[in-house]
Amino acid sequence: MAEGSGSGEHFGVSIGLHEDFVVARAVGELDYASAGLLRRQVKDTWEATKPDGLVLDLGEVSFCDSMGVGVLVLLLKQSREQNTALVLSSIPPLLERILTITGLRTAFQVAASVEEAIQVMQTSTPPAQPEPAPKAEPL
């Protein structure tokens, strides 16, 4: 487990593979000091393994600030760009509330557990690539 530095509480990320899916488990405070660690760990693993999807297990996240939410949004953007699934699992009530208040809750696929998240990815098709905007014709 990699440790963040500078945050008030230990933060760690453990990453494993389950079939063709990456499972990343975050533990501790997901904040300004640790958000970069989560982003780097997941990005490096994503690039090295080219998985069919990513489960981000947040069940042991004790705190999340705007930087933590920002890294979740960046990972969602990356998943869409790579046409792979991203499922958040075991979201703590505080983070669920933050995502709901900010309007981001509906942007994420969510599952109650890692096992459920993997089942969701196994039975769903990858998100569709957004279509490019039509080019304007000169008048």
Task: Provide structural commentary.
- This protein has 139 residues and is of the alpha/beta class.
- It has helices at 35-49, 66-81, 93-101, 114-123; strands at 2-3, 12-18, 21-30, 53-64, 85-89, 109-111.
- Helices cover 36% and strands 28% of the residues.
- Mean pLDDT is 86; it is low at 1-8.
- It is globular.
- The protein contains four helices and six strands; from the N terminus they run βββαβαβαβα.
Oligomer: single chain
Task: Determine the strand fraction and express it as a percent band.
Answer: 25-35%
Largest sheet: 6 strands, mixed
Counting helices, strands and paired strands, the structural category is alpha/beta
The counted number of beta strands is 6
Shape: globular
Query: Which sequence of SSEs, written as H and E, runs from N to C?
Result: EEEHEHEHEH
Radius of gyration: 16 Å
> How many DSSP helices?
4
Which parts are unreliable, with pLDDT below 50 for 5 consecutive residues or more? 1-8
Q: Distance between the terminal alpha carbons, to the nearest Å?
A: 59 Å
Question: How much helix, percentage-wise, in residues?
Answer: 25-40%
> Order of strands across the widest beta sheet?
1-2-3-4-5-6
Mean residue pLDDT? 86
Give structural attributes:
139 residues; six-stranded mixed beta sheet
